């Protein structure tokens, strides 16, 4: 009953003091409640009688025993008539407010109530239909935030609680007015790689909706092609920097399987040859084959040779040895940096218990190379079992990697030519190969898309420039696909300035769409794609549902109506091909 | 200007045409002429106001018409009004903010008419809406806000503590006249259900008169009558129950079909885009009608604790209102308590929504029920409280 009680009593006119007699038997001291008898509701008495129970009247109610305690804890402030008056006034106001609230048609919530309610109902709260669980910790960079789609993307992101950075070229008043105030504005130009470093800092995801202002080739190249390339590079640099900080152990770092940097790095690789046919004809016309894997003086690891045998092949193979604690099931594919001279090769993975190679199952994927060096991504999902009945590849079990050269298909192509031109010369060209290897890495898996690119279908572009526009856009798309980021490429039909969510949408791959789409729908797809695993590494066209005239229906595409109740994106995208 | 909506509302059959309750005359100081919104006097001012705007407005309407009265959209050369540009009046209110958010998400360009105030409505700007400062009670501020606007959505209602007529009647009349003069393409007005049946409640009568005024104005419009907002129940019942404060309720048997404002906003925009609904009067009601007691019981069940209910019999409310009407200085209070007249009626209040759903092409499954709404609230809040408790326990160790 000393200092602690004294201080508590000084507040006790607001909080119910525990010495007060309670009219109800099951009385619990409420934490914060004004002085209203608990049984008030049950009696059905006139509210006026019990409304202004002033602190003084409660004191007179208390028994002598509690009076005693009370005297101990009385402070000067408690008997101050002004203070008492103020408090009783507050209490009366509160009661009156509640009472008169009952008779009112509309209500005013007090400012302090409003704030707490707002936080729950409006801003981040789960009661908000727009809130997305992942949004709180995600920072999204919107490139081209002042474009038709970009403006809407920014708004939608803000509504969903993302942290948004907007990349703009100039921060003049017009631009500032256009964007919500809590958006962080970064000034930069996608054509200038140096300005992008600050923009990607701290970002988890990027939505790229900038387009060239004109169809001049220079503009197109700068924004639609080089721009995408620069932003992806800057973003990858940033990711790599983060990965380096964690000494290659970050979830974003690739796993190095082989790097051909010195002569030593060739050890373990084995050159083998074989044929698909074991018949007499093959044997009789066997012109032989040969291959070698060597480290040249110029510092390149070259796998080269020729295959003349019908149905023959040569291959380069190695048992994969992973660092301790690493398994391939945490990776989603392989990336090879090779100079392949335009030939196509077959990548073969053997999977099964490594102790017993007899049980291994072979999986293959064809890879195409270009003249000069290129990076080839081979997602594990694209590997098919050699025997169609076998189960799909489980990356965890992979133990051997093989790169095979087989001239079969290429021969067919060139034999026609060969029959007219000099036969032998052509044949050597076709059947020989030279593959320069730089490295083989495993790509870390990711569930979500990192980079959403708004491209175009070419509809609605003036026909004379369509070719150039599409060329730049496609080049931009390609550079994104090669970047190693999880990507989603959205190719909307001609954009319309109208509210979204009204008409069914068609998601398609393969240049078949004919309708327009509203900007708001495109923005919605971009935002939804950020957290949708089915959107990762997909490119698709999207437009309004085509409403055929009576009797002219050709075929029916499955349409999806955007709505709050259904997540239309996942079912729409799950049927589409990845990595196209 | 927030449209904070009833947590209690009217019942359908309760027709109390107590015209002796009505004040005898009310003249608007702004116009000088007798712009009475008394129901009995309605036809007169309404007809004349559309045909020939009142003295004070004449000058002003002409001014507006100079920039294009003739419905034409080409006010200035080369800048047609975009159909996506909307003005939301009352954007900071319970319904208004949901309207703004929905509109932004659907790709509209939203301008919000907000009263100038010391703490501006930051959240609207954060969402990407444009905020313009104007006040419906200051008529000269209105026209500028309508420039370049295609659709006006009016979800404003005066606060209970301010004189009801300035915003809700004079302001609205001016807004509608101005909208008409400036060629606004569509005007959406939120009213109160059964407002035609209770002229003794000032707010409801004003809403009814405004409906009439809007219908006569010739504007392309939709009138939406609402019943009650679920959001209002949180502050009134859910929060006090969780905080173990006392909850005040009446024993009125009135039932109200509460509706989620997010659903109202969604349906509004579906209606807005549907050309067939122009000029119609829709009523939005929730899936089920509830009495106060039922709501409290539901909250108690979901919160897992008993409420401290203070039940005020309706007749006391009514008596208080009658008493306060005797003195001029308490007349304001009497107006505020006017709704108690409605509460004394005891009919079930709900509108069959099937037809409306059909008209709008909405599935009734998508409409949130009160159980779902409160369940959602309580699970979230209880989880948050648990987290807080866990945190405070951790810090206890260090004390």
From TrEMBL, chain A:
It comes from Rubroshorea leprosula. Residues 1-25, 55-74 have a biased composition (Polar residues). This is Uncharacterized protein. PANTHER family: FLAVIN REDUCTASE-RELATED (PTHR15020), NAD(P)-BINDING DOMAIN-CONTAINING PROTEIN (PTHR15020:SF47). The lineage of its organism: Eukaryota, Viridiplantae, Streptophyta, Embryophyta, Tracheophyta. It comes from the Eukaryota. Transmembrane segments: none annotated. Residues 1-76 are annotated as: Disordered. Residues 144-237, 450-532 form the NAD(P)-binding domain. InterPro entries: Galactose-bd-like_sf, NAD(P)-bd_dom, NAD(P)-bd_dom_sf, NADH-UbQ_OxRdtase-assoc_prot30. Signal peptide: none annotated. Residues 291-386 form the NADH:ubiquinone oxidoreductase intermediate-associated protein domain.
Automatic annotation (TrEMBL), chain B:
Residues 85-334 form the NmrA-like domain. It holds the Pfam family NmrA. Keywords: Photosynthesis, Photosystem II, Plastid. CDD domains: SDR_a5. GO terms for biological process: photosynthesis. InterPro entries: HCF244-like, NAD(P)-bd_dom_sf, NmrA-like. Gene3D superfamilies: NAD(P)-binding Rossmann-like Domain (3.40.50.720). GO terms for cellular component: photosystem II; plastid. The keyword Plastid applies. It comes from the Eukaryota. It is found in: Plastid. This is NmrA-like domain-containing protein. It comes from Rubroshorea leprosula.
């Amino acid at each position: 009953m000393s200092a602690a009680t004294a201080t508590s009593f000084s507040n006790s006119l607001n909080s119910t003091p525990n010495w007060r007699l309670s009219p109800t038997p099951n009385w619990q001291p409420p934490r914060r409640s004004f002085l209203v008898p608990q049984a008030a509701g049950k009696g059905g008495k006139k509210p006026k009688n019990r409304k202004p129970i002033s602190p003084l009247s409660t004191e007179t109610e208390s028994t002598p025993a509690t009076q005693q305690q009370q005297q101990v804890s009385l402070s000067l402030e408690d008997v101050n008539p002004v203070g008492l008056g103020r408090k009783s006034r507050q209490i009366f106001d509160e009661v009156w407010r509640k009472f008169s609230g009952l008779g009112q048609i509309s209500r005013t919530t007090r400012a302090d109530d409003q704030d707490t309610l707002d936080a729950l109902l409006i801003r981040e709260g789960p009661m908000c239909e727009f809130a997305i669980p992942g949004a709180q910790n995600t920072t999204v960079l919107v490139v081209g935030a002042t474009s038709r789609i970009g403006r809407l993307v920014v708004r939608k992101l803000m509504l969903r609680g993302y942290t948004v950075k907007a990349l703009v070229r100039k921060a003049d008043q017009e631009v500032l007015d256009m964007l919500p105030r809590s958006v962080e504005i970064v000034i930069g130009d996608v054509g200038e790689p140096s300005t992008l470093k600050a923009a990607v800092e701290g970002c988890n995801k990027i939505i790229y909706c900038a387009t060239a202002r004109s169809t001049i080739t220079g503009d197109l190249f700068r924004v639609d092609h080089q721009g995408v390339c620069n932003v992806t590079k800057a973003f990858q640099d940033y990711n790599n920097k983060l990965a380096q900080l964690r000494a290659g152990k970050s979830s974003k770092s690739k796993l190095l399987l082989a790097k051909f940097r010195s002569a030593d790095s060739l050890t373990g690789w084995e050159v083998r040859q074989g044929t698909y046919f074991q018949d007499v004809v093959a044997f009789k016309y066997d012109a032989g084959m040969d291959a070698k894997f060597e480290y040249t003086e110029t510092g390149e690891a070259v796998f080269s040779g020729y295959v003349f045998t019908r149905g023959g092949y040569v291959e380069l193979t190695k048992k994969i040895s992973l660092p301790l604690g690493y398994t391939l099931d945490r990776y989603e594919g392989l990336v090879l940096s090779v100079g392949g001279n335009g030939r196509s090769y077959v990548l073969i993975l053997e999977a099964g218990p490594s102790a017993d190679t007899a049980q291994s199952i072979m999986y293959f994927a064809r890879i195409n190379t270009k003249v000069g060096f290129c990076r080839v991504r081979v997602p594990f999902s694209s590997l098919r079992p050699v025997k169609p009945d076998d189960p799909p590849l489980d990356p965890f079990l992979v133990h051997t990697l093989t790169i095979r050269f087989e001239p079969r298909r290429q021969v067919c192509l060139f034999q026609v030519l060969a029959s007219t031109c000099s036969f032998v010369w052509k044949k050597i060209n076709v059947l020989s190969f030279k593959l320069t290897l730089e490295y083989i890495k495993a790509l870390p898996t990711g569930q979500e898309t990192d980079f959403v690119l708004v491209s175009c279908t070419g509809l609605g572009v003036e026909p004379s420039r369509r070719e150039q526009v599409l060329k730049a856009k496609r080049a931009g798309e390609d550079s994104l696909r090669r970047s190693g980021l999880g990507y989603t490429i959205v190719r909307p039909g001609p954009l319309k300035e109208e509210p979204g969510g009204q008409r069914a949408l068609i998601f398609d791959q393969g240049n078949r769409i004919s309708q327009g789409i509203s900007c708001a729908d495109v923005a919605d797809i971009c935002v939804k794609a950020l957290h949708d695993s089915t959107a990762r590494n997909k490119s698709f066209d999207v437009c309004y549902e085509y409403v055929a005239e009576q009797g002219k229906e050709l075929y029916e595409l499955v349409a999806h109506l955007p709505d709050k109740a259904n997540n239309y994106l996942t079912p729409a995208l799950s049927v589409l091909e990845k990595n196209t | 200007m927030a449209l904070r909506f009833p947590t209690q509302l009217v019942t359908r059959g309760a027709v109390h045409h107590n015209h002796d309750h009505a004040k005898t005359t009310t003249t608007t100081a702004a116009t000088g002429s007798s712009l009475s919104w008394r129901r009995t006097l309605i036809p007169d001012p309404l007809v004349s106001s559309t045909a020939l705007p009142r003295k004070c407005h004449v000058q002003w309407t002409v001014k507006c018409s100079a920039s294009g009265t003739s419905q034409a959209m080409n006010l200035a050369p080369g800048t047609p009004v975009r159909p996506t540009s909307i003005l939301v009046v009352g954007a900071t209110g319970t319904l208004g903010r949901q309207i703004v958010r929905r509109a932004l998400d659907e790709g509209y360009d939203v301008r919000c008419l907000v009263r100038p105030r010391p703490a501006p409505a930051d959240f609207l700007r954060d969402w990407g809406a444009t905020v313009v400062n104007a006040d419906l009670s200051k008529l000269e501020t209105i026209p500028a806000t309508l420039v370049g606007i295609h659709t006006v959505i009016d979800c404003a209602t005066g606060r209970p503590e301010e004189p009801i007529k300035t915003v809700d009647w004079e302001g609205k009349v001016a807004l509608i006249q101005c909208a008409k003069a400036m060629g606004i393409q569509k005007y959406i007005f939120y009213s109160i259900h059964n407002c035609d049946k209770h002229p003794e409640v000032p707010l409801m009568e004003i809403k009814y008169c405004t409906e009439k005024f809007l219908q006569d104005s010739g504007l392309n419009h939709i009138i939406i009558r609402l019943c009650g907002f679920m959001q209002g129940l949180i502050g009134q019942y859910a929060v006090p129950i969780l905080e173990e404060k006392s909850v005040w309720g009446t024993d009125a048997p009135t039932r109200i079909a509460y509706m989620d404002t997010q659903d109202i906003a969604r349906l509004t925009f579906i209606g807005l885009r549907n050309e067939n609904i122009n000029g119609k009067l829709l009523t939005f009601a929730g899936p089920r009608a509830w009495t106060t007691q039922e709501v409290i019981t539901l909250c108690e069940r979901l919160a897992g604790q008993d409420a401290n209910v203070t039940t005020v019999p309706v007749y006391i409310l009514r008596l208080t209102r009658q008493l306060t009407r005797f003195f001029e200085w308490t007349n304001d209070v009497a107006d505020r308590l006017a709704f108690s007249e409605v509460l004394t009626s005891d009919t079930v209040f709900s509108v069959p929504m099937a037809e409306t759903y059909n008209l709008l092409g909405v599935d009734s499954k998508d409409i949130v029920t009160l159980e779902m709404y409160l369940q959602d609230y309580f699970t979230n809040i209880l989880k948050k409280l648990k987290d807080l408790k866990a945190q405070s326990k951790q810090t206890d160790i260090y004390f």
